[in-house]
Every structure is written in C-alpha cells, then in structure tokens.
Amino acid sequence: MTILILGSGGREHTFAWKTAQSPLCDKLFVAPGNSGTAQIATNVNISVTDFDAIKDLVLKHHIDMVVVGPEDPLVQGVHDFFLNDERLKHVAVIGPQKAAAELEGSKEFAKEFLFRHNIPTAAYQSFNPSNVEDGYKFLETLNPPYVLKADGLAAGKGVLILDDLNEAKAELKNMLVDAKFGDASSKVVIEEFLDGIELSCFVLTDGKHYKILPTAKDYKRIGEGDTGLNTGGMGAVSPVPFATKEFLTKIEEQIVKPTVTGLAKDNLPYKGFIFIGLIKVGDDPKVIEYNVRMGDPETEVVLPRLKTDIVEVFKAIAEERLNEINIEIDERAATTVMLVSGGYPESYEKGKEISGLEHVENSIVFHAGAIEKGEKIVTSGGRVMAITSYGNTYKEAIKKSYQNIDKLHFDKMNYRKDIGFDL
Ligand code: AMP
Ligand code: GLY
After folding, report:
1. Residue 419 CA to ligand 2 centre (angstroms)
2. CATH no. for residue 75?
3. Which atom of ligand 1 lies nearest, measured to the CA of 196?
4. What is the spatial distance between Cα 364 and Cα 362, in angstroms, rounded to a whole number?
5. Ligand 1 atom at shortest distance from the alpha carbon of 193
6. pLDDT tens for residues 39-78?
7. Domain ranges, residue 174
8. 28 and 97: one domain?
9. DSSP H or E stretch at residue 200
10. 298: Cβ below 6 Å to ligand 2?
C-alpha cells in the first residue's frame, strides 16, 4: 500500500515510524513532515489543510490510505472531502468525518453529547454575547476556581481557570464581547471545577467496534512541579500507574462504551482515534474533553507499546472489522521527555543546530519541530524532539531518556527534569 500521513510533529514521526515497520506499507509519504520523517518516508511540503494539494498528491502517487494527525483538517472536513470526490472516495481515511470532529471543534457540542449519553462530566452552561449577564449570574452560583472555555479551537489556549470571581467575570466579557480568542470564543462554556488527577484514554473505533489502547499521562505545564504556562505537552508516561484494573473497567463501562454507541446513535461517522481526556475524582473517572486525534506527546509513548501492525489496524478500521483485530500491548512502560526551544511556549528562536543525535543509545528520538538544513538538523518549532524509552518500570524508562538527553544539545535547549514526579 501507499500511505500518506498528514502532520509534522512528534506524533506524526511516531506514526511514520510505526507505519514504516509494516510489511503492508510499500511507500510512505508525510505532508509536510519533519527531519525525523525525512529519514524514513518522503516528505511533501504541503499544508495539512490544503485539500486540493492533498488531492493532487494522492492522485499522482496512487495513495491508498491517508492517516490524519492533527485536528484542524478533520474539523475542516478532510474525510468528507475524500468521500465526496469520485476519484478519492476509494481512499481509506483514518480520522472522523466533520460532523463527528465537532467533538473537538466545539466544547458545547461535546458537552451536549456527554449529557445526552449520560457520560460523567462536569456540570456546565454555555453563553454567547447576548447573554453575558446570565453568565455573570451563573458564575456567582459556583465555587472557585472558575473554569471558562472558548467553544472553538484555540490552539490549546482557550481554557482559563481563575480563582477570583471578578476576574472570571472580566475574562468572560473579554472572551465573549472583546473576542479574546477570535471566533473561537464567540461562545463560552462555563464548567464546574473538577478536582483530581488527570489521565488520557485512547480508543480506536471503526464506528461500530472499538479497541482501547494503553492509557497515558501528559505533563502540560512548562515548569517543574506542574507550574507555569500550559504547553502542548512536555512529556508523557504510559501506562498510568494509578489506573488500576478496576478503574479501567469503570472507564470502559461508563465512558468508552456510551461514547461509541452514542456516536452511532447520533449518526456521527467515526473511523479513527478518540482521545478522551479524563480526571479521576475520588474513585471515578469524568470526561474533561474529547479530542478527535491522538495526543502529542502521548503518541510517543502509546504507539511504541503497540505490538500489532498498525497498518493492519488501520485497514480493519476502514473496512469496519476492527472486532477481528487482536491488539497486542508491550508490557513494558514507556516514557518520553520533550526537548523544547528556550522561551517556549512564549516566543523563541528557531534554526538552532541540534547535535549529539548519533550518540543516543536505548532510546528512540521522535523529531517534532526540527527540519533538515543541508547536512544539519535544526530547530523549527517550540517542541523540538521527544526522547522515548522503555523500561520494566516508568522510573527505569525515564532514567534512560534523561541519560540520552545529556548527550543532546542545541542553543537554549529546555526540558522538564521531573516527568513522572507525581506518580
Ligand atoms: P481542555 O482543553 O478542555 O482539556 O482543558 C485544558 C485543561 O484545563 C485540562 O487539561 C485540565 O487541566 C483543565 N480543566 C478543564 N476543564 C476542567 C474542569 N472542569 N475542572 C478542572 N480542570 C479542568
Ligand atoms: N498532549 C495533549 C494533546 O495532544 O492535546
């Protein structure tokens, strides 16, 4: 098969790494890709949302399958674009159709879905510029901290958690009336604050059947001890040690099953990954959010633990026979640590040469914001590379990642030295 992966992050390098291992994959393209995917696939410099350019690429190279990494093309309807085109509709697309991608594209849509299907989540109400005053009143009925969420996609920045009521009111006005997050905050969801520890559950579905992948925990804050600004994710651990068998059964029964049957009931066509962001409140899981894709850097610890051929899995999803697939998981733990550009998640410099890669042993380096420049590999983004390792325990795995990080260098390189600290 000829396969195309859309995206350019550590997640997509990991997809490419796993896909390239499959005997079913004859030729692999990544658009736009990075310096990591360049070593195992053919990078094509087109944007993930330029559907016409994607179409030309698919037709030119007789591509049989497209695996969509990030949410933007899904929310914009890339899967529907393929289905609605006579010359593309035979191509297998891994990722939900536009109507289902609204689970990530709109927080209000996701909350309505959760309530309609009785899936545990925080209480909420949503507001728009015409009822800001009602929003203030609703805030007055809640206990701090206050959780405000821009309804639409806001590049991971659209959630505010505030301790002070007046500040919460001011921010609500900022979002709704002054368009703090542009169109994304023309509607705002205000939620009950849930106090607990977070984890993520990853589900594959073909719309009828599902398979649960290993859990993972991501470290989102820039600073050690979970302090400072939110990032895309600074490291991850899989499995999550506190997710006991009993807790996983609750997740499956109370959350995964009603999600998959809910998608079918609501006619939301879904062939792809569901990333369920969870919080453990007491002994019970509650849904914080849905994403319609894999997580990054969670992919860098989840896929290395998948022993099954991923292309077999994707084929089964496309053909709606996921029930026939046996998902085999490596018992070892996997951890990853993200190396980031100094200054990230605020402004940072690019084009810094990365050295020491040839000395890495017993870890896998997944490139993210890194590109080839002549013979060199240089930084091109905030999150630069993820160093993944296996171990019998997550502690053993994380030690290997840090040992290898000592051999790597670029100007102003930064990373968290405490991944897994809270487990
Ligand atoms: P989201 O984009 O919905 O995942 O929210 C981003 C982050 O905000 C989550 O990873 C949580 O850490 C936090 N968060 C979101 N909703 C809540 C909530 N209802 N209670 C507590 N924390 C929340
Ligand atoms: N690491 C969080 C995300 O991918 O959304």
Report:
1. 15
2. 3.40.50.20
3. 21
4. 7
5. 20
6. 999 999 999 999 999 999 999 999 999 999 999 999 999 9
7. 123-191
8. yes
9. strand 197-205
10. yes
